[in-house]
Amino acid sequence: MATRSSTLRIGVVGYGHLGQYLVERIIKDGAGLGLTLAFAWNRNPHKLKGLVPDHLILEDLSAFKTRVCEVIVEVCHPQIVKDFGVQFLSHAHFLVGSPSALCDPELNQQLRQAASLHGNTLYIPSGALWGGQDIQRLNDSGALTGVFVRMSKHPSCFRLTEDTLSDWTEGEGRRVLFRGSVAELCPLAPNNVNTMAAVAVAAGTLGFPGVIGEIVSDTALRDYHVVEVEVSGAHGFSVHTVRRNPAQLGAVTGSATYNSFWHSLLGELNASGQRWCHGRFLFL
Ligand SMILES: NC(=O)c1ccc[n+]([C@@H]2O[C@H](COP(=O)([O-])OP(=O)(O)OC[C@H]3O[C@@H](n4cnc5c(N)ncnc54)[C@H](O)[C@@H]3O)[C@@H](O)[C@H]2O)c1
């Protein structure tokens, strides 16, 4: 079990946009907030040289247990969650930045079991999701009946595993790329549907097969991504949120999401004293 020191030592796995942002902020602002960097890893370690102190660069991810840390943050790729998630949880709390990995029911179960066994917690950052904790509360009360999530972005912001968008042209407007369960959607767009995956974790009674998602390419969305969530509950209850998330052309991640991840880490700092949350998913 990860024990609590006065500072929370964080290992960051992945040094893309989110990883760089988090590492920089931990180095710059962490000391005053009780956060410190335990290690940073990237599949190409040269990217870290000169930006991260040498002794904090982890060259080989399978050596992560040589670094004492309370939390490991994955901001890399769902494959890393699959390959290392269970091992991470044997060593530390684990913040899953790519929750689309959890659409695999077997992996989902293995991670929950590992968290329980080792007394560690799986954290799901809210990322670009608005109202995740409210959805989780409605779910836990038994009153949640349905959730629909639509994510609309400029076509240059999608990373699809199939060839659906290779023919897009500037000015073509709106095109629905897929509508179906989040379980079906995650393998098609693993880097684009983390927000939907986070919804599916929050709405655990519906889960990945029961939450419905839609991805829309829209050439008019040059400056932001749009995330719409429609939640329905017992006795006619409903909530509809529309989030406009400023984003550069071609960016997978909206800029407000960086700050959201940072606040999830600060939330972990507060939540890490709550022993009741071990072994389950906790929204931050
Ligand atoms: N939870 C959310 O709301 C949310 C929001 C945005 C992004 N994300 C996810 O977080 C992760 C990081 O996002 P980002 O914007 O920093 O992406 P990015 O593309 O900028 O960075 C990803 C990094 O991981 C590395 N990488 C990619 N595939 C890999 C693999 N198979 N094995 C090892 N390394 C690999 C890349 O080289 C890069 O350094 C992505 O999986 C993304 O989908 C989640």
Percent range of helical residues: 25-40%
**Overall pLDDT metric:** 90
Helical region count? 8
Reported CATH architecture of the largest domain? 3-Layer(aba) Sandwich
Spans of at least 5 consecutive residues whose pLDDT stays below 50 are 273-279
Q: How would you classify the quaternary structure? A: single chain
Range of strand content: 25-35%
Strand order of the largest sheet: 2-1-3-4-5-11
The largest sheet is: 6 strands, parallel
The CATH homologous superfamily of the largest domain is called NAD(P)-binding Rossmann-like Domain
**CATH fold-level assignment of the largest domain:** Rossmann fold
Pfam families: Asp_DH_C (PF01958), NAD_binding_3 (PF03447)
Protein name: Aspartate dehydrogenase domain-containing protein
Domain Aspartate dehydrogenase: 173-257
Organism: Gadus morhua (Atlantic cod)
